[in-house]
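Extended Data, panel c. Modelled sequence:
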Amino acid sequence: MEKSLTKVQATLGIHSPASSVTVADDTERADPIQGEKIEEDAATPVPAPQLDADFHPYNFSRRKKWTITVVACFFTLLVSAATTSFTSGYPSMMRDLGLTYIQAVVGLSTYVLAFALTPLFTSAFSEEFGRQPLYVVSVVVFLLMHVMIALAPNVAVIAVARIIQGAVGSTGSTMVAGTIADIWEPKQRGLPMAFYSILAFGGNGVGTIAAGWIEANPKLEWKWIQWISMMVAGCYSVVFAFTMRETRAPVLLAKMMKRRAKEAKGKGDFQLPTAAVPKGSFKELLWISCTRPLILLTTEPIVTAMSVWLAFAWGVFYCMIG
C-alpha cells in the first residue's frame, strides 16, 4: 500500500512530509558546498602584476632604442680599446719606470683576468638591482682608473689599477648584450647585435692605432695614452648620464609598483597584489650566476668546443699584442 501511495503521489506531484524533509536536507547540504566553492574562489591568488605597455622597454620609441644601443655599445668600444692601447705604451713605460718586459705585461694579464672572472658575480647584481646602477659605477670607476695608471709610480699600482679597470670594464662587454635583449624583440635584434659585435672586436684595432700614434710622439708617450683615454671616457660619461635609462623590465615593474603605492598612500583605494613578481633571493641569483657557466662548460659539448676555440683564438691574439 505504501509503495502504491508513493507512486500515486509522485504522479500527481504531491510530496509527503518525509520527501519534503529529504528535499530540504538536500537544499541545506547544497548551500555549504556552494559556499565552499565561493570561499575557494576567494582564496585564489591575484595574478602577478604586469608592467604597463607604455613603460615596457619593448615599446620604447625606435629613436630611444637606438640611442641606448649606441651609447651602451660605445662603452664596449672603450673597454675593448683599453685592452690594446695599454700595450702600445710598453716602450716608454718600461723606460720611465725601469720595468722589464715581463713586468710590463702584468698590466695586460691582470686586466684580462679580471675581465673574465668578474661577470660571474656582476650578472646577479644586474638581475637584482637593474642595469643602470651597474653601468654608472662601471663607467665612473673605469674613467678614474685611467688617472690612476697615468700617475702610477711603479708596476704594483699599475697592476692594481688594471685589475679594477678590467673588473668594471667587463660590464661593457657582457651586459651590453643583455641591454640589447631588453629593448629589442628577438626578430629585431640582428642589426643591433651586429653593431655591438663590430665595436667589441673593432675596438682592439682602434686602441692599437690611436695609442700607437700617441706613443710615437716623444712629447706624449704612455702617460698621455691614459690621459687622452680618460678625456674620451669623461666626454662619454656626460653623454651617458643624459641618455642611458634602466631597461630591465622586472626592475621597472618594481619601481612602478612602489610609485603607485606611494601615490595612493592614505587614500585607502590601493592595495598591492598578493602575488609578487617571481624572483629568487639574491644569494640564489649569485650562486646560479657563478655555477651555471661552469656547469654548461663541463656538460655541454657545444659550449666546451666553442670555449676551447675562443680560448685558443684570443690566446694567440693577446700573445701577438702582448
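The longest helix spans residues 155-183. This feature is highlighted in the accompanying rendering.
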